[in-house]
Amino acid sequence: MNARPDNWGALLEGLRRRDRRALARIISQVEDRKPGWQSAMQSIFALAGNATIIGITGSPGAGKSTLTGALATGLAARGRKGGILAVDPTSPFTGGAILGDRVRMIELAKHNIFLRSMATRGAMGGLSRATRDVARILDAFGHDIVLIETVGVGQDEVDVLRVADLTVVVCIPGQGDNVQAVKAGIMEIADLFIVNKADRPGTDDVVGDIRAMQRLTMGKGMRQANILKSVATSGEGLDAIIDELDRLQPIVKADPSAANRDLGTEVRELVEDDLLRLFWDKAGGREKLASLLGEGKISDPYQLAQALFSEKDIAGLSGKDKN
Amino acid sequence: MNARPDNWGALLEGLRRRDRRALARIISQVEDRKPGWQSAMQSIFALAGNATIIGITGSPGAGKSTLTGALATGLAARGRKGGILAVDPTSPFTGGAILGDRVRMIELAKHNIFLRSMATRGAMGGLSRATRDVARILDAFGHDIVLIETVGVGQDEVDVLRVADLTVVVCIPGQGDNVQAVKAGIMEIADLFIVNKADRPGTDDVVGDIRAMQRLTMGKGMRQANILKSVATSGEGLDAIIDELDRLQPIVKADPSAANRDLGTEVRELVEDDLLRLFWDKAGGREKLASLLGEGKISDPYQLAQALFSEKDIAGLSGKDKN
């Protein structure tokens, strides 16, 4: 599969020269699993490893995009390079123009800040896998910090945030039960809470709600995440947030339990992603399942599964792929 | 793969006769994916569909085992048949003797209540898959209710509880931050809270904590779960709990969004389980990964993944399986 070198060599050379078009192109080709992507990621892996990956989550309307952009700009003012990866597990689209991002992208580009959007790719739950790859490419490009901004929804969000070295949860005052936005599984992995739009009434109530939630959910020996306030639109509180992120970075990086440091797990994910994609996409498993379900003749899951896959089909699977 | 009929015919006949030894043997053979298990599960699927599956979770020490046993006994007194499936995602052992269950099993057998224990099987995250199969076998055996008792830990627990038609969360007073036991992702799927050991001081505090947690985490339009008190060791409160479970059953069964009613998802899981097991176990993927990691020569996940799997290996995979 690695026979065709395509334009990978030139693109990787462009990445080393910090050419933003090469960066965007490499991301697209890796996302699309173009032939040679594994070898390209090997070169990228060798270049990467310097950036801290920061996940930023919170409910829609919490001002995550503004805050993330302001943080990247604030980092740039301190001579640091922050790239942004906006991940929306709820959107079926991918490639750039989601989340109303065109305008934002142009605005950020003025400050030389790279923004990339990602959404669902395939149905294989491969979004966290893709997020990890793209974050690594941004890292290899020379970013000091990769800000992953994700919409707060369920298990997909938790999986995406597993890629991050540290996780920031954004809340806002004035939405009655807004801490509800801090979904299951997020509370436990939060390294920092930000109450944004802190010029609005009810800010201290939100801080109280977060404290209460922390008391109820925190396990023994866990770090208690700090709570900072900001008004991202005016820049208020941003310096303190960047200071706190700087304080946290060495702490989380030193934590050996960090999921993204687990090589075995990552290899397993890569292999399983490939294997399942081969089966469902390339070998037509998805269409076959849809058509079997559409016929509605069989309601028995075991029989349906057997109709789709038996061990001896494996040979045919590979043969089909060679066409 | 379905060539050898083994003893499936006799065992299925035993299941229809409600022979408990046949039941136990079928569960073992399905868990072990003995040849012919799919056809056997097809027959079992046709017999099943009458039982309500109730998941019971909570922190260790909450008295879940005693409560579950007492509920099954209480059901028996009302002429109903409740079987118990004890699932421990934290234990590497499986087959019966986990959770100190030998004594318990003998005790329950006196009341003609079947208890089965399950723990981690394989590393494929297939525990929820296995739980679903075993619950279905207990259903086909003629149980009205299958009580799945699981230890409260992380994502595995949530996956196991997805199999249940309704979920009960057990808390106890007197453990400072004990509602912390209600882990991420569980609060949202709870249909009923039980404060067990309610003869101890602090019972009302726990009820208050649960109410607070519900206010913080509940989404709009969600059913608010009731909170009942019990002393499982004395039987106090059990009648009210069984009444509430009876009230809930038709409500949850009528909910079309119930995950276990999603045929496509189940087929997908079955197929992926098979495919991944074939790769990691039968084709030696696991050993190969362990040996590659052990050598420590490669730290690059993409290179490791390629060493383990490329599309053309699929043919070899199947060939190997035929030996």
Tell me what you see in this structure:
2 copies of one chain form a homodimer. In chain A, 49% of the residues lie in helices and 12% in strands. Chain A is built from 13 helices and 7 strands. In chain A, helix 8 links the parallel strand 6 (192-195) and strand 7 (226-229). The first copy, chain A, is globular and about 60 Å long. In chain A, 44% of the residues are buried. The model of chain A is unreliable at 93-97 and 315-323 (pLDDT under 50). At the A-B interface, helix 3, helix 8, helix 10, helix 11 and helix 12 of A face helix 3, helix 8, helix 10, helix 11 and helix 12 of B.
Give a brief description.
2 copies of one chain form a homodimer. With 323 residues, chain A is an alpha/beta fold.
> Distance between the terminal alpha carbons of chain A, to the nearest Å?
13 Å
Work out the strand percent of chain A. Answer: 5-15%
Shape of chain A: globular
In total, how many beta strands of chain A? 7
Q: Low-confidence parts of chain A lasting 5 or more residues at pLDDT below 50?
A: 93-97, 315-323
What Rg of chain A do the Cα atoms give? 21 Å
The SSE string of chain A, one letter per element, is: HHHEHEHEHEHEEHEHHHHH
The biggest sheet of chain A amounts to: 7 strands, parallel
The helix content of chain A, as a percent range, equals 40-55%
Largest interface: A-B, 62 and 61 residues
| Largest sheet, spatial ordering of strands of chain A | 3-2-4-1-5-6-7
Mean pLDDT of chain A: 81
Structural class label of chain A: alpha/beta
Number of helices of chain A: 13
Oligomeric state as shown: homodimer
